[in-house]
Amino acid sequence: MTASAPTAGRAPRPVTPAGLAYGAGAYTFWGGLPLYMAATAPASALEVVFARIAFTLVTCAALLFVLRRWRDVGRQLGSGRRLGATALASVLITGNWAIYTYAVISGQTLEAALGYFINPLVSVLAGVVLFGERLRRAQWVAVGLSVTAVAVMVVGHGTFPWLAILLALTFGGYGVVKSRLSTAVSPVASLGAETILLLPVSLAGMWWLAASDQMTLFSHGAGHFWILVLSGVVTAVPLILFGAGASRLPLTLLGLLQYINPLIQFLIGLLLFQEAMSTGRWAGFILIWCALLVLMVDSLRAARRNPRPRHGP
Question: What residues does the EamA domain cover (predicted)?
Answer without folding.
Answer: 19-154, 163-296
